Amino acid sequence: MADEELKKAFGELQSKMVETEQRVAIADAQIDALQRSVVRSKLTAKELSSLPDGTRTYESVGRAFVLRPSTEINDILEERVKTSEERVKKINEQKTYLEKNVKESEAAVRELVKQRKEKA
After folding, report:
1. Contacts of 66 (CB under 8 A, 6+ apart)
2. Helix locations, 2-69, DSSP H
3. Which of 18, 28, 11, 5 lies closest to 94 in space, CA to CA?
4. Alpha carbon of 111 to those of 10, 64, 115: distances in Å?
5. Residue 37 and residue 80 in contact, taking contact as beta carbons nearer than 8 Å
6. How far is it, in rounded angstroms, from Cα 48 to Cα 57?
7. Tens of pLDDT, residues 37-85
8. Which residues contact 79 (CB under 8 A, 6 or more apart)?
9. What is the pLDDT, as a whole number, of residue 1?
């Protein structure tokens, strides 16, 4: 019976670890995409700031371009940077939680194995 419990615990741990590894990989991909977005937005804002006042600027909206004042485009870019950085922080917190959860599960299985060895 002890072997069955250990097998079940190891099976659960393995499935949990695989699921967590997948979630961590997804989180890493999301973080990379958001960080690229931040860099792109900052670079665009830097280039816009170097343009002379009165330059006609356009924002891409789907397949069309809309004439917008450069100050409005800068505001939009700043908002994108802020939003992306907040999402990166939130995803990092989720990733930390997932990794902590797996470590706790591993510790629980180790404790179970230790208890079984002491009984034997």
Report:
1. 58, 59
2. 2-49
3. 28
4. 12, 61, 6
5. yes
6. 9
7. 999 999 999 999 999 988 999 999 999 999 999 999 999 999 999 999 9
8. none
9. 54
Three-state DSSP state, 62: coil
The pTM of this model reads: 0.77
Return the structure tokens found at 32: 């990379």
Q: How confident is the model at residue 21 (pLDDT cuts 50, 70, 90)?
A: confident
Can you tell me the distance from the alpha carbon of 49 to that of 42, in angstroms, rounded to the nearest whole number?
11
Find, among 42, 6, 11, 16, the residue nearest to 105 by Cα: 16
Q: Angle of helix 2-49 relative to helix 70-119, nearest 10 degrees? A: 160
Q: Are 45 and 74 in contact (CB under 8 A)?
A: yes
Q: Which residue has the tokens 């958001």?
A: 34
Tokens 């890493």, located at residue: 28
What's at 33, amino acid-wise? A
Q: Report the amino acid identity of residue 105.
A: S
